[in-house]
């Protein structure tokens, strides 16, 4: 280990202090004009403003910083990603992801039910030559379809609020919906 020469170190510290003191004394007018006076004027301006305005400005600044930080957060797995223009989103993988989320999420269950209800209503309207509004009205009233499982899949808040047997009920409901789209009667049990 190198031996410290305290005399040399003391001389260097003294020289640095003298140089700093000389610079401060020599540049006193410049430091006062560039640093001290503007700081005093800024303090005077802030002190003359009403307290409520200052707190409002601080809150707005905090909100802006918080919003910027929130927008910079990485995207959550469940949040939708934007698809660049010209790039098609694979519908099958999107539907599979929705079904996976529907096992535990009521919101996803409602979205899936809305998609299936659109399909069922359009198939029924085409098959029975009725206006889609009539089919929607009967679906919302609970008069259609007669198959209880399919009705539960098409409107999950009524019967499938519990996620327990959702996948088996979905499978049975999709079988009934497939039967409708292939030409069978929709209300056959």
Describe this structure in words.
The chain is mainly α. The protein has a domain at 109-182. It has nine helices and no strands. The chain has helices spanning 6-26, 28-48, 51-71, 91-102, 106-128, 132-141, 148-154, 156-159, 166-182. Helix 4 (91-102) crosses helix 5, helix 5 crosses helix 6 and helix 7 crosses helix 9 (166-182). The longest helix is centred in the middle third of the chain and has 23 residues, at 106-128. It is elongated, with a radius of gyration of 36 Å. The N and C termini lie far apart (93 Å).
The percent range for strand residues is under 5%
Helix content: over 70%
Terminal residue distance: 93 Å
Number of strands: 0
Low-confidence stretches: none
- What class do helices, strands and sheet pairing give? mainly alpha
Total helical elements: 9
Write down the secondary-structure element order: HHHHHHHHH
Output the radius of gyration.
36 Å
Mean pLDDT metric: 82
The gross shape turns out to be: elongated
Biggest sheet features: none
Brief overview:
The protein has 189 residues and is mainly alpha-helical.
Descriptive labels:
189 residues, mainly alpha
Helices and strands, with pairings:
Elements: H1 6-26, H2 28-48, H3 51-71, H4 91-102, H5 106-128, H6 132-141, H7 148-154, H8 156-159, H9 166-182
């Amino acid at each position: 280990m190198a031996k410290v020469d305290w005399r040399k170190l003391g001389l260097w510290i003294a020289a640095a202090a003298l140089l700093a003191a000389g610079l401060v004394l020599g540049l006193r007018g410049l430091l006062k004009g560039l640093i001290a006076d503007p700081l005093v004027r800024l303090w005077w301006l802030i002190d003359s403003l009403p307290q409520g305005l200052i707190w409002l400005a601080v809150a707005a600044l905090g909100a802006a910083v918080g919003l910027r930080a929130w927008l910079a957060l990485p995207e959550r797995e469940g949040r939708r990603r934007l698809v660049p223009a010209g790039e098609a989103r694979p519908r099958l993988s999107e539907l599979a992801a929705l079904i996976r989320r529907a096992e535990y999420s009521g919101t996803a269950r409602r979205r899936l039910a809305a998609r299936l209800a659109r399909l069922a209503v359009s198939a029924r309207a085409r098959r029975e030559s009725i206006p889609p509004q009539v089919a929607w009205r009967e679906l919302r009233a609970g008069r259609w379809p007669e198959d209880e499982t399919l009705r539960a899949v098409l409107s999950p808040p009524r019967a499938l609020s519990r996620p327990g047997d959702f996948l088996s009920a979905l499978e049975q409901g999709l079988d009934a919906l497939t039967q409708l789209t292939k030409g069978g009667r929709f209300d056959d049990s």
